[in-house]
Amino acid sequence: MEIEQIGRYQILAELGQGAMGVVYKAIDPLIDRTVAIKTINLNLSRDDLAEFEERFNREAKSAGRLNHPNIVTIYDVGRADHIAFIAMEYLEGNELKEIVASGVLMDFDRIASIIAQVADGLAFAHDNGVIHRDIKPANIMVLGNGNIKITDFGIAKMSSGTRTQVGVVLGSPKYMSPEQVVGKAVDGRSDIFSLGTVLYELLAGRSAFGGEDSTLATIMYRILIEKLAPPSSINTAIPGALDYIVSKALAKEPENRYQSAREMAIDLRNYRHLGFSAPLPAAAIHKSELAGTVKIGEIDGGATIVLAPPAGARKRGIRLAATAAAALLALAAGALLVGPGRERAPLAQKNPASQAVAGTASAPPPSEAMPQAPAAEVVPKPKPAPNPAQAKLAFAVLPWGEVFVDGRKRGASPPLREIDLPAGEHRIEIRNAGFPPYRETIKLRAGDHLKIQHKFR
């Protein structure tokens, strides 16, 4: 039976269905505004319903406070009969999932811009104590103007509780962090890992840890134990700096990852200036110290998943309880949501060299050979001998700024720390969107070593 109204909202059309409920296009008659209504089925016992509603309202309110250009805006929460609902801004665009599924590879600048905008939104959310927990292409919207918005904020956290009946959404298996897989407490670095898997997929044209046909046990093994070949092993055109960003985001241990999404966004926007001329070796992506027998969460009355280290070339040593598999496989069905970010760059044409992998449904199992880059360290290039007719100018900028010298952009600090300049007068300008630019004219003498320090407030 078609629904015509939810609360005060008049339903116009069904936009999609997900694991938690249905998403509708609707009108708020009070202010004549078009909204998206995300519904959540409440087929729960009375005790579970009371607990769910308390968390639902708390988490939805938390998400509603996230007023950021890269996060979908929540207008209202409520309950109507047997469903809870969230009313949010209606946005026209495409899920990043649809772009990935098309097999069309984007240019590296566009990919970096998309992921940087997501990282901006995550940084703001983390600063406000909200963790997404389900970052994946289906929850990233690319608008018609090229801007990016994260959807389903706070819903994943709201839906994961101690009781299995309430804990419906724990994350999508292919994009989960190691700590999510083993049921540990998570912080913002878990979102960073998930965002790293999305970046890998955009660059390589295939999932980092498994395609649609990969078993749940295989995906979990790869996330927890297996070393990951850098994306440049699939597409050699990928710059080494992007390999580095992927490797840092996908470190198995949280302390080895970016410690904030803001750091990741800075590197993404300045990847052309990071100075990596060679692909990062696969060995740089850290192996988890969780190797050994690992218990993966209790599900449905005590059933567990247990991973063990491989017993042979063709054996993974993975035991998967059948009831647990059935429960966790249901997590893969992500909720569909309509959801905006910066000016769109045109999509690149299909890369003939990568067409073979762009549509690949699954990566090879761990027991088979995966393309691996040589496990060699990246050796920095030797610094050239100093030129006595030049001077050095160092920068210390917080939180970051684009550096211009005599009207020419020289990079962003950080990571830019020092440049060589000829002796003489130079106009320095440091820009950070949202703040007045810093400007200074300096006079350098041959052999000088000066430092400019500035903090944007």
Pick out its properties.
single chain; Transferase(Phosphotransferase), domain 1; alpha+beta; Phosphorylase Kinase, domain 1; globular; Immunoglobulin-like; 457 residues
Strand and helix layout:
Layout (H helix, E strand, L loop, with lengths): L4 E2 L2 E9 L4 E7 L4 E9 L4 H19 L9 E7 L2 E7 L3 E3 H7 L5 H20 L12 E4 L4 E3 L4 H5 L18 H4 L6 H17 L11 H9 L15 H10 L11 H9 L24 E6 L3 E5 L10 E3 L1 H8 L25 H4 L31 E9 L2 E5 L2 E6 L4 E5 L1 E8 L6 E7 L4 E7 L2
Parallel strand pairs: 13-19
Antiparallel strand pairs: 1-2, 2-3, 3-4, 4-6, 5-6, 7-8, 8-9, 10-11, 11-12, 13-16, 14-15, 14-17, 17-18
What's a concise summary of this model?
The chain is of the alpha+beta class. 25% of the residues lie in helices and 25% in strands. Residues 158-170 and 278-379 have low confidence and may be disordered.
What does it look like?
The termini are far apart. This protein has helices at residues 46-64, 96-102, 108-127, 155-159, 178-181, 188-204, 216-224, 240-249, 261-269, 322-329, 355-358, and strands at 5-6, 9-17, 22-28, 33-41, 74-80, 83-89, 93-95, 140-143, 148-150, 294-299, 303-307, 318-320, 390-398, 401-405, 408-413, 418-422, 424-431, 438-444, 449-455. The model is unreliable at 158-170 and 278-379 (pLDDT under 50). It is of the alpha+beta class and 457 residues long. Helix 3 packs antiparallel against helix 6 (188-204), helix 3 runs antiparallel to helix 9 (261-269) and helix 6 (188-204) runs antiparallel to helix 8. The strands form 5 sheets. The protein has a 6-stranded antiparallel sheet with strand order 1-2-3-4-6-5, covered by helices on one side. A 4-stranded antiparallel sheet has the order 15-14-17-18, with no helix packed on it. The protein has 11 helices and 19 strands. Helices cover 25% and strands 25% of the residues. The radius of gyration is 24 Å and the shape is globular. The chain has 3 domains: 5-89, Phosphorylase Kinase, domain 1 (2-Layer Sandwich), CATH 3.30.200.20; 93-358, Transferase(Phosphotransferase), domain 1; 390-455, Immunoglobulin-like (Sandwich), CATH 2.60.40.
